[in-house]
Amino acid sequence: MNALSTVFGDCIKLWELYPPSTHNLNVFYRLQGQEMKFSRLARDLQDVTFAITTQGETLYMPSGWLHATPTVRGGVLLGVNWTRASDLKSVAEIFAREATNS
To answer: Is the pLDDT higher at 97 or at 78?
Structure first.
C-alpha cells in the first residue's frame, strides 16, 4: 500500500526507509512477529534512506517499503494508505509472505 503521512504541531519524526527488494523482505520476515525488529535488522537491510518530517510536511511512501518511524518530539501524525491496480502484485506478494510466516 502507498502511504502519505503528515506531521502537525511541534511533532518531529525520523523516518528510516528501505525499498521492498527481495533481499530486504527476506531479512525482514526472518524475524516475523518479533518486537524491535529494525534495531536488530538495520545492519542487514540494504539501501536505507533517512528523512525527517516536521510541522506541515508530508512524506510519500511507495507500496511495500519497510520503515521505522521514531518520534523525536511528540505531536500528531496523520496518515492515509491506499492501493492502486499497479500495486496489486507487490501487495499480494507481501500478504503471501505474511500468511506463510504467521
So the answer is: 78
* Cα 98 to Cα 101: distance, rounded to the nearest angstrom: 5
SS3 60: strand
User: Alpha-carbon distance 17 to 45, whole Å?
Assistant: 10
Residue corresponding to grid cell 503528515: 6
Going from N- to C-terminal start, the domains of the chain cover: 2-101
Cβ–Cβ contacts within 10 Å for residue 55, how many?
13
For residue 51, give the nearest of 3, 102, 100 by alpha carbon: 3
- Give me the percent of the chain exceeding a pLDDT of 90: 42
Contact present, 55 and 17 (Cβ < 8 Å) = no
* Residue with cell string 496489486: 88
Calpha distance 60→4 (Å, rounded): 5
Q: What pLDDT, on the 0 to 100 scale, is given for residue 16?
A: 93
Helix (H, G, I), strand (E, B) or coil at 76: strand
Q: Supply the pTM of this predicted model.
A: 0.81
